[in-house]
């Protein structure tokens, strides 16, 4: 019943975007040849420029994702340190 989700590497995505911008065919026609949906190709076009570089918005999203992960890691470390400090304070008496 459920379909497995296919993953595409960045090189494949960039090549598909370059082809969609350079071809005279429609995006739907370009998407059909490698077997992807046109919606997926449109999302990739938002992420990559016609040259295959990441757009500024995609770069900012990547940076935000990294910062959120780092923030979560620091919060977890802070929580562990608080627990350890409370444990040691309790056992020093």
Write a structural description.
- 70% of the residues lie in helices and 0% in strands.
- By secondary structure, it is mainly alpha-helical.
- It is elongated and about 80 Å long.
| DSSP E strands, number | 0
The topology string of helices and strands comes to HHHH
Low-confidence stretches: none
Largest sheet: none
Brief description of this entry?
The protein is mainly α and 93 residues long.
Question: Which helices and strands, and how do they pair?
Answer:
Elements: H1 10-22, H2 27-32, H3 38-47, H4 56-91
Helix pairs in contact: 1-3
Which terms summarize this structure?
93 residues, single chain, mainly alpha
């Amino acid at each position: 019943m459920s379909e497995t989700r296919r993953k595409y590497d960045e090189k494949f995505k960039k090549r598909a975007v370059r082809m969609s911008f350079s071809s005279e065919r429609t995006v739907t026609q370009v998407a059909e040849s490698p077997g992807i949906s046109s919606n997926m190709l449109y999302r990739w076009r938002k992420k990559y420029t016609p040259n295959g570089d990441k757009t500024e918005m995609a770069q900012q999203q990547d940076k935000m994702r990294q910062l959120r992960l780092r923030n979560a890691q620091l919060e977890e470390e802070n929580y562990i340190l608080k627990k350890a400090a409370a444990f040691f304070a309790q056992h020093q008496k």
